[in-house]
Amino acid sequence: MRLLHGQPELAQCFYGYLALNDSPVVRENALVARYGETAAMHCPKMFKEERLEVLHGLMRAHPLATVITAGSGGLMANLIPFSLHDGGEHGVLRAHLARGNRQLDELREGAETLLLFQGPECYVTPSWYPSKAEHGKVVPTWNFAMVQVRGTPRVIDDASWLLAQVEQLTAGHENGRKHPWKVSDAPADFIAAQLKGIVGIEIPVLSIEGKWKLSQNRLPADRQGVINGLKEEACCAEMIGLMEGG
After folding, report:
1. How many CA atoms lie within 13 A of 14 on its CB side?
2. CA distance 214 to 227
3. Displacement of CA 152 from its chain's centroid (Å)
4. The model's pTM
5. Residue by residue, what is the 3-state secondary structure of 106-173?
6. Tens digits of per-residue pLDDT, 14-41?
7. What is the pLDDT of residues 78-92, one digit of tens each?
8. Both ends of the chain: CA-CA distance in Å?
9. Which is nearest to 28 in space by CA: 202, 161, 210?
């Protein structure tokens, strides 16, 4: 499949075949052929984060992902919370969405799926840079951390699978609370009726990229100025933690 990368004529023929083939393996290979082994997000080397445990950490801390598809129904995007599981080289994502969600049709088609996990972000004023007083050649920017994931979805319409997914997702956010809520706290017939209104999706992660833009392109004094400024304004504690940790 790597031979198709960079050969648009062959790729076009291949995608014509792909449109008639429902094989998940074929679709996954098509993604590799189209994007290569890595995705295509703009990311200067100094901002690139490649440690899988760090990428997974952000995804677990910020599980509400933007799911983007561009299938036969056109470009679509929805916010959907995911749970991350072991499996494959980069992990497996699981979620559920409303049965009436139109994007479900795109997912059933095996449409190429892009997921965006947005971590902490903050505006950076040039007033925080000591270099502003030296030469004034500074401009505002934005610091952020985010993960992009690509994969081929599998739609799952099975009540037992859905119940397990909902229980696991709920437990992950309820555990640690003083009075954690459990799915079993609700009447069984009520939960069964709720499950009929949702459909599950599973996405083995084909490619994963992280971008940690944390003022690495600034002088150490300017970078410290950003940290000090954020602390002074008492905002974005998570961003402060990332900048001080790296």
Report:
1. 20
2. 10
3. 14
4. 0.83
5. HHHCCCCEEEEEEEEEEEECHHHCCHHHHCCCCCCEEEEEEEEEEECCEEECCHHHHHHHHHHHHHHH
6. 344 444 444 444 544 555 555 444 457 9
7. 999 999 999 999 999
8. 38
9. 202
